[in-house]
Structure prediction request, 354 residues.
Amino acid sequence: MRTLTCDILVVGAGPAGSSAAREAASKGASVIVVERRAAVGVPVQCAEYIPAPLIGELRCGRGFVVQSVKGMRTFLNGRLLQQIDAPGYTIRRDVFDRMLADEAEKSGAGILLSTIAVAREEGEVIVREKGGTFSRVRAKVIIGADGPRSKVAGWTGCKNRNLMPAVQARVALDRPMEYTEIFLDDRIYGGYGWLFPKGNEANVGVGMKVRGSGGEIGRVLFDLLARLSSGGKISGRPLDIVSGWVPVEPGGAMRAGSILLAGDAAGHTHPITGAGIPQAVIGGGMAGKWAAHAVDRADWGKLAGYESEWREFFGETLERATSRRRLLESNWDRLEEIVKYCWVTFKEYHSEYE
Ligand SMILES: Cc1cc2nc3c(=O)[nH]c(=O)nc-3n(C[C@H](O)[C@H](O)[C@H](O)COP(=O)(O)OP(=O)(O)OC[C@H]3O[C@@H](n4cnc5c(N)ncnc54)[C@H](O)[C@@H]3O)c2cc1C
Prediction:
């Protein structure tokens, strides 16, 4: 079995992994990224919305933007409750992820595709490469950026415990739209439906806690598609359907020894909206920066800086969202009454619930 050696091994080339790799490599660390997919960013399992301020955090062009979005409309049980301005973009997530990976490579990181981290033995990571050959990777620091069902988080004992399934259809839009639409609905327990316009198409999806049969979420999605179709917003059959998992509760520690967790692997997705791209990009960058710093000083205590910086930046937002998710789930039969305390665009969300 061959042995690869590097300062920092990053598992996963999603937004968190590529951002970590770029940051660490640009600070002089030798970085290897292993990615189980054959091509970065494919298939897309995302509604592809990013808030406008995230663009300022990126060091690449805007080639991934499909359209700009003016704001959001929120519906409760089919009734329009609110329309707000909140600038953002819908993007091509495959192009976005590829651009971040390119930035990491330009900074000096090496990305091994079709390569899966399968185990950790005596401090080394065993990876299975294309064709089935196994190799060992010896690294001073490991960054687990391998998504919601992270293998690396399993090694630290901090696996995501609260995952919500999401399913989404790509459909034709009847006419272009400038607002995203959110559907809070008694039938979508603990989650919501969405329509995110993307040029002539839209991503229409549902993320929800499933209480009954596994088929429930699919039926809810098809009901939503039928309603949007009869309402004249979309037409035709779905062009494709994707599904995925969304962590809806931040994990425990983000560090265990010389392992850091970033992005969905750390459960950094927003527990109410399910959005995780900003946390993956910004938090991944922080993980890469502190890992490089620790390697440079040969001082593993420096790794603690990652968790402190992350908590300062995102901690309060995710804590509030976690408590609002508890309120939402435990008072679902009173959705009409609590909705404004449980959805991010209402002013009540930011005040205390008595
Ligand atoms: C249906 C859906 C819609 C969403 N819509 C939005 C949205 O509109 N906006 C938003 O902000 N967020 C959205 N999210 C959440 C967002 O997609 C995630 O928060 C984001 O992808 C997290 O990035 P990441 O880099 O942490 O993980 P990922 O993007 O999941 O990347 C992890 C990478 O690790 C690789 N990997 C996994 N295991 C291994 C292994 N053992 N070895 C090697 N490689 C491995 C995977 O192949 C993958 O490329 C959505 C999620 C879902 C499911």
Summary: The domain at 2-43+93-161+249-330 is CATH 3.50.50.60 (FAD/NAD(P)-binding domain). The mean pLDDT is 96. Residues 11-17, 34-37, 45-49, 116-117, 145-147, 151, 166, 168, 205, 244, 246, 263-265, 269, 274-277, 280 surround flavin-adenine dinucleotide (CB under 6 Å).
